[in-house]
Amino acid sequence: MIINILKIFLIGLIVLGWAGSCSCRPSGEPDEEMLLTDSILAVYQDSMAEVPQKVIDVFSGKRLQMQDSVCFYILLSNESKCYYYLNRMEDAFRTNREVIRYCTDHVSLDRSRALLAEAFNNQGVYWQEQGERDSAVSVLKSAVDILQTTRERGVLTSVYMNLADCHLQKGDYSWCGFYYRRALFVADSLGTGDRDHFAIYSGLAKLYLELENFPEANEYFVKAEQIDHSCTPYERYFFSNTRGNYYYNTKEYEKALDWFRKADRITDAFPQPLYKAIVRGNLGEIFILSRQPDSARFYLDDARRLFGKAYAQPSFRYYMDGLYASLALLENDLPRAEQLLSHTHDLHQVNPLYTYYNNRRMEELYRKKKEYRKAYEFKVKADMFNDSLRGVKVKNNLAEIDFRYRQDTTLLKMDIQLINARDEMARWKTIAYYCVLLLLLFLSASLCWILYRRRKREKQYWTQTATVNRLRMAVVRNRISPHFIFNALNIILPVFRQYDGLDKPIRLLIKVLRGNLFFSEQVAVPLKDEIQLVREYLQLRLLGDPDRIRMIWELPPEIPDTWRIPSMSVQIPVENAVKYAFDSEDEGACIHIRVVEKQACLFITIEDNGIGFATDAQNGREEQGTGYGLKILRQTIDILNSRNKNKMNFIIQDRSLLEPGGHGTLVSLVVPLDYTFDL
Questions:
Q1: Which of 56, 108, 475, 552 is the most buried (most CB within 10 A)?
Q2: What is the pLDDT of residues 463-506, one digit of tens each?
Q3: Which tens digit of pLDDT belongs to each residue from 182-203?
Q4: How far apart are CA 276 and CA 364, in angstroms?
């Protein structure tokens, strides 16, 4: 249920085995020392768990009065248990190893073998406390083997109970039931009394509670209640807490509250706060379920305080975070609940049942936040966990019944399991073979695709290179006539200087020709230089009639040098508009040039109110030079776009198709500011 008390519950079980394990005298030991040892244990046996430090002081003083004998190590063994109760695990292991060393050196003595079995039993408990359950099972089985060779078997019941508890923690419920019944059989055979029976009945009740076999669990609880007069306070505490868990699982919360309060009262005399912390956490959850948030918060805060350093353990922290989240949900503190439920935990160290509860809490959280899709997702997860847990419990129930009634078929079932394991291994080998085959096919297909893409890119590169070379050759051929004219004008310019009014036009013509020649050799030029070239061209073109075409310039106050565009991308559309857009009789002819920066791009438009681009094309007025200039410009832009992620756009549109009653041509150029002009 609430907090997994399995690893603490085992203490109540092993106390019983420890209680009467040192009462027999080995041959050869002085009667005085053995009597002294027995009397000391009789006085302090029940005090070891309640006042362990006091018992350590007494035992240490008494050991100084003894020789290096079995009795000396009997007291040392019991000191080790006291260190365990104090949670001083290093000291517990250290002293227990000294006992094991001594007994191993004197293994020929019957009493030494019995004490060695008891030391192995202690070591199994300590390993179990550290979470090393496989090591605990191994050493406990060694204790059983040793006890088979001795006459002193009083600790055998405790060993079997500890083995059962180890398997209960591991989830091996069938083996847990097997060892509890072995312990019951030994207790009946040895006639050890009600104390062993109380612990065994409590353990079986816990087993069936875990299996959710509530009728069987209640039957063993009732049997234990009938003999609880002979148990120690620690055993009574574990029983009361487990009984409260039983009523919690059967949703009888008032009865659960009574038993938890009884356990809480018992822990008042305990030196360790951990036991009270567990009960306080259980009480807090009951008050949450009873919708009493103030009481719940009081007990949860007290539990967190009492846990101390143990609160950092993943299982305790995960459980307590879940309870605080439930409290936050009860108080509609949804941000707090979400924060607690979103903490990261190592789920390998957490009871899967807690994960189921937390998925339910997440479902409730998102349902209250009206995020029904997420709420449904966690509901599905919780249902899957629940189904899985139920499936495991059904399986464990069947396994426990099988152990209970069919132990003679164990070997047969192991053979069947071995055959199934071999079949499973063969199936996985087949799956692995096909997986490797699919992987090889995938790698082959990937390699082919990479080679195909590389070949395609190489082909595209050489195609583009050929196109660029072809365009450059065309530019060279087109430069022959301008070069000739430019050189001729330079020769005859001195002659024209003697005529007033001819010097300036000729110089302007030379300047425009020089600019065209320079720009034709460039892939890209600064926008500022392109605008200056267009202005000089218009000044030359409209020299005879400057008012024939009205020019509207809409430019930024200052054009940065970093703004670059493909060369002639403004000059060619303006030249086309001047040459072809207007008839000589047109009045109100206008060309509007606009440059705007927005959305990390340059937007350049050249707009005229002439006869229109489509009409131009239909009337066949596009000359070879103009058409060739646009063709080179488009191809240059296509090549540049292939080198850039963000593309440049160059569009020519007839205004009559864009707006009713409109006429003329709209040329749009969009250049990203991070555009690269490298070929």
A1: 56
A2: 776 666 566 556 544 544 555 555 556 655 665 666 666 666 76
A3: 888 888 877 766 678 888 888 8
A4: 30
359, 378 in Cβ contact below 8 A?
yes
Number of H helices, E strands in the chain: 27, 7
pLDDT digits (tens, 9 = 90+) for 34-70: 777 878 887 777 777 778 888 888 888 888 777 657 8
SS3 231: coil
- Is residue 553 included in any domain, yes or no? yes
- How far apart are alpha carbons 559 and 557 in whole angstroms? 7
Q: Which residue type sits at 615?
A: T
Distance CA 651, CA 58 (A): 101
**DSSP string for residues in 352-398:** HHHHHHHHHHHHHHHHHTT-HHHHHHHHHHHHHHHHHHHHHHHHHHH
Pairwise CA distance, residues 60 & 62, whole Å:
6
**CB contact set of 275 (below 8 Å; sequence gap of 6+):** 8, 237, 267
Cα torsion 531, 536, 539, 542: sign: negative
Does the residue 12 lie in any domain?
A: no
Q: What is the pLDDT of residue 73?
A: 86
Give CA angle at 439 (437, 442), nearest 5°: 110
Instruction: Please indicate, yes or no, whether residues 471 and 527 belong to a single structural domain of this protein.
Output: no
Give the contacts of 1 (CB within 8 A, at least 6 positions apart): 245, 248, 249, 282
Contact 604, 595 (CB under 8 A): yes
Structural domains of the chain, count: 2
DSSP 167: H
551 and 662 in one domain?
yes
Q: Which tokens belong to 96?
A: 């227990």
- One domain, residues 474 and 543: no
**Which among 448, 478, 508 is the end of a domain?**
478
Tell whether 527 and 661 lie within a shared domain.
yes
In DSSP terms, which residues pair with 566 in a beta bridge?
524
Residue 634 lies in a domain: yes
What's the token pair of residue 54? 């006091």
Residue position matching structure tokens 């060309």: 591
Whether 375 contacts 366, CB under 8 Å: yes
Q: What's the DSSP call for residue 557?
A: S
Cα(337)–Cα(264) distance, integer angstroms: 28
What CA–CA distances, in Å, run from 657 to 271, 615, 653? Answer: 94, 11, 8
The three-state secondary structure class of 552 is strand
Q: Domain of 433?
A: 410-478
Q: Are residues 425 and 535 in the same domain?
A: no
Q: Which of 423, 448, 478 is the last residue of a domain?
A: 478
Task: Report which of 633, 636, 635, 642 is spatially closest to residue 667, judged by C-alpha positions.
Answer: 633
| 42/22 Cα distance (integer angstroms) | 10
Return the CATH number at 604: 3.30.565.10
Q: What are the DSSP E strand ranges found in 145-196?
A: none
CA 368/CA 441 separation, integer angstroms: 50
Whether the Cβ atoms of residue 59 and residue 40 lie closer than 8 Å to each other = yes
Same domain, 533 and 667: yes
Is residue 575 classed as helix, strand or coil in its secondary structure?
A: helix
Strand partners, 603: 596, 670
Q: How many CA atoms lie within 13 A of 115 on its CB side?
A: 32
Assigned domain for 575 exists? yes
Are both 526 and 668 inside the same structural domain? yes
Q: Which amino acid is at 207?
A: L
As a whole number of angstroms, the distance between CA 199 and CA 178 comes to 15
Residue 356 is encoded by which pair of tokens? 């189921």
Give the tokens for residue 84: 């365990």
SS3 470: helix
pLDDT tier at 320, thresholds 50, 70, 90: confident
Residue with tokens 């709209």: 666
Residues 640, 527 share a domain: yes
